[in-house]
Amino acid sequence: MLGGLFVAAGAKALMKPDRYAVQAEPLAEQVAPLLESVDPRLPTEPRTLVRVNAGVQVIAGAMLATGTAPRPAAAVLAGTLIPATIVGHPFWQIQNPAVRNNEMVHFAKNLGLLAGLLLAAADTAGSPSLGWRANRAIHDAQKSAHKSIRKAQQKASTQLHLG
Q: Which pTM was predicted?
C-alpha cells in the first residue's frame, strides 16, 4: 500500500510536471551547482527534475508494492520524498495561519511516510541482515581457525612426545 501512494503521486507529477516545477524552482536552483559539478550533462531544469523524481517514484513505488527488492525501493523512495516534502509543503514560508497549519499537517504526514519507508528499508522480514550475516561469518571463520590451530598444536605436541 505504501508503494501505491508513490506510484499515484509519481504518475500525477509525470502527467503534469509544470504544476510542480514552479514549486521546485527554488530547490532546483540550489542543487543545480552540485549537479553540474557531478556531471554537466545532468538535468538542472526544474521541470526535468520533477519528471525524474516522479519517474523514480513510479518505478520504486511499483517495486515496493510488488515486493520486488523492497528494501532498496523503500530507501530510494525515502530519498525522493525529502525534496518533494520540502518543495511541496513549505509551511515556514506561509503567512496565513490556516494555510500554514494545513501545510504543517501535510509536512508531518510526509515525515510519517518517511519513517515508514525507513522502517521498510531496514526490515529484513525475519531474516538476518547483511551486517549480522557478515559478523556471523567472521565469527565462524575465527572459531574454525582457532580450532584448526588447536588441532595442529595437539598434533605437533603428540609428535614431539612420540618422536
A: 0.70
